[in-house]
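Preliminary data (for renewal application), guanosine-5',3'-tetraphosphate complex.
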Amino acid sequence: MGFTEELQRRRTFGIISHPDAGKTTLTEKLLLYGGAIQEAGAVKSNKIKKSATSDFMEIERQRGISVATSVLAFNYQDKKINILDTPGHKDFAEDTYRTLTAVDSVIVVIDVAKGVEEQTEKLVEVCRMRNIPMIVFINKLDREGKDAFDLLDEVETKLHLSVTPLSFPIGMGYDFKGIYNIWEQNAQLFSGEQKQTVTHKETYASLEDAQLEKRIGSNSLEQLKEELELVQGVYNPFDKEAYLSGKQQPVFFGSALNNFGVQELLDCFIDIAPEPLPKQAEERLIQPNEKDFSGFVFKIHANMDPKHRDRLAFVKIVSGTFERNKPYLHVRHGKKLKFSSPNAFFAEKKEIVDISYPGDIVGLHDTGNFKIGDTLTTQEKIQFQGIPSFSPEHFRYINNADPMKAKQLNKGIDQLMDEGVAQLFTLHLNNRKVIGTVGALQFEVIQYRLLHEYGAQCSYENLNVHKACWIGCESEDHPEFVEFKRVKQKFLALDKQGQLVFLADSAFSLQMTQQKYPAVQFFFTSEMT
Ligand code: G4P
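Predicted structure:
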């Protein structure tokens, strides 16, 4: 197969959801359809159980699983599918945001009974901002849930999406009989033992099929017809261009656990989901079909074994081919590196690969050369945009608890920050180090990993910070900016890239400061937009 065919057959996407909506179950069912696994239950859940806060073995176990499930690749029909794992736990939301920079589309899973939940809102917002094509899968139709139209409304109003159903449930919960596939214009009825798996699937080519009426009854059929009419009246028909530009989101209904509607979702997905998309670098837009290789690091995973300090850097290939043992330019360091054992991912296994194509993810063994956002190319000096840091939610001073191990502590903090575990800010006034995290869990992870991987001990001290804002001003010597820096000295810090950050101690003081210094710009992501 040539380069163009390889490129065109790749579909790289992420599944996002609030925890428990059914992301793991759906992933597993997709892998089953792809023949990548043989039985249900084979994909390990990477869910952080509630007890994990103080259970470090649990955290380590989860880290192990999260390496295994970082990329799940399989072939389905003539397509090569790469699913990028996105942690659902909110303390790891930042990981998910970064992974979303490497996907070409997403599937959003929503629980039919719970509707749109908090984590879904946040993640969809990130996708919306980037115009990522999204398909919505409403799951758990085997249970009693909200009315389909109410749910579609909720998705539109809470997630600010513009939906169009491509399937519609026939009944729900106990009465759930099947799916009318608007995309393929046929009806599918499912039956199986205790509804645990589909053992029997009947397809009816149209609603006028007399057998269909016999099977579901005239009342159900009438209701379905009315509902489909309403769908037609209320929602715009599916428009592929609108979907691909993030302006319209098709919706499917089903039950991942029971295999209802999953194949319909997958078949439509491979039909409409985008192949690898161009990506914006600071210098220019990079097209996937360019001959020269380019890619970027979106995730770094430290080795679980403290004796081997190497890490695995996950690189999304944007253009060209990535080949084993070829020298590539590490743009930030300005030096060429060769990789003798790049890993490719297949289902839950990783194996050494000679050549990878746009859309693929390669795992590169790294001894500390990479940090998140780094660009690799054949030779061109470009830097991909779009792996911003978001303002952390929790802040603490980090202190050295073992003066003999200062070097180890600094190295450990440095590497953990490169991995994106948390963010480091250094206060202007006294050079004290402040760690900012998205969730409280990370403080314990950092302490544990510093000790076990670097032999360093740290302690924390509380610090009253509400938000970190990246600061900009059109001119360095604008009088307001100079005044701001003088008056607010105590609250200023530098992030790891040396960008100026204002650590506001409350929402009120942030607001007051913004009002007082209108010439100063406050940004909530390091991308400063
Ligand atoms: P997540 O990755 O989004 O967090 O969700 P996960 O797939 O782990 O699913 C969460 C729970 O919902 C699981 O039950 C799973 O079996 C169940 N589930 C997923 N899809 C469906 C569905 O279509 N119908 C029904 N009724 N349940 C579904 P659990 O009891 O938490 O875990 P387990 O013991 O079954 O693994």
